[in-house]
Design a protein that fits this description.
single chain; mainly alpha; Rna Polymerase Sigma Factor, Chain: A; Arc Repressor Mutant, subunit A; 2 domains; 9 helices; about 0% strand; globular
Length: about 190
């Protein structure tokens, strides 16, 4: 079948799931649930909430799968992250909360799927703290760009904005983080 993270492999699983193959659907879940969970846990304060949101998003994905159209060059993960982001926005609306990224990660260090060395160091804490000062929109853009390796056009689709706006917001976020580091006397 090929590389498990390749567009072709994921599209093959999507075709199978659309055709009723439960193994393909299960494999899609196995491949993508870690990425979705990692995104959600950096945005909500409790493991259970992240798990609930993930399950809700995957149930919606399953219900909507028949309407998903595979297109050349398009990523299924972009479509899935649109669903995930909408479930997260619904959660924020119901809870009327905003939780900074740094508090979430620091309160759940064991949940990071890309484990850092045992001694993360002061600079990593400063980066997390700087990320926590950004608006949620900029945090999401940076996460999707650096963690999920999405292109600006894919992020634009997920976030319902133009690719140019994504680039501008990403640039502003990076500049703000640089400013905070310069102001604090730290170099990046």
């Amino acid at each position: 079948m090929g590389d498990e993270n390749s567009i072709e492999y994921i599209n093959e699983l999507v075709r199978g799931a659309q055709g009723g193959d439960e193994n393909s659907l299960g494999r899609l879940y196995e491949l993508l649930s870690v990425r979705v969970y990692r995104y959600l846990i950096t945005r909500v304060s409790h493991r259970e909430t992240a798990e609930d949101l993930m399950q809700t998003a995957f149930l919606e994905m399953i219900r909507s799968l028949s309407r998903y159209k595979i297109r050349a060059g398009a990523k299924f993960t972009t479509w899935l992250f649109q669903i995930v982001r909408h479930r997260l926005i619904d959660h924020y609306r119901r809870q009327k909360i905003v939780l900074p990224l740094d508090e979430t990660v620091e309160s759940h260090p064991d949940l990071q799927t890309d484990p850092a060395p045992p001694d993360v160091g002061e600079s990593s804490k400063q980066v997390l703290s700087a990320l926590g000062t950004l608006p949620e929109r900029q945090q999401t853009i940076l996460h999707l760009f650096y963690q999920e390796e999405m292109s600006p056009s894919e992020i634009a689709e997920v976030m319902n904005m133009s690719a140019i706006s994504v680039r501008v917001e990403k640039h502003r976020a990076i500049n703000k983080i640089r400013y905070l580091f310069v102001e604090g006397g730290t170099t990046i």
